[in-house]
Amino acid sequence: MDELRELYQEVILDHNKKPRNFHALPEPARKSEGYNPLCGDRLTIYLHVKGDVIADVAFQGSGCAIFKASASMMTSALKGKTLMDAQVLFERFHRVVSGQGTAEELETLGSLRAFAGVSEFPARVKCATLAWHTLKAGLENKQTAISTE
Ligand code: ZN
Question: Which residues surround ligand 1, an ion (CB under 5 A)?
Fold first, then answer.
């Protein structure tokens, strides 16, 4: 668990300070919005899908460090991935942050493993998963804004 704790510190602090893909995308990007009223995290996800590939993904928003680092790492992890791969990663990430992931699933997450420690803090799970839920809504082309409540 010490290795995970170090990773958590290192990766989350870094992505919070220098979020990747932190900008809007020009039209005709798909847009989806998410809000976590419990913490105040709020974001817009921009998506370009070509065929079944996420050609580009970016975000804008504000909130806590866990939220921002999660959105930053998610966009980095998903760019260039197929929709199928994105769905698999979404499900794995969700299980790991809610404390239900297997050791194998944890291993396949790469630096996203840093969020495994979040499972110890149920209120922060929403911070860590907000961007993912919002992205999923964007991929499914849902028009409604996503709220974690
Ligand atoms: Zn938060």
Answer: 39, 41, 63-64, 67, 127
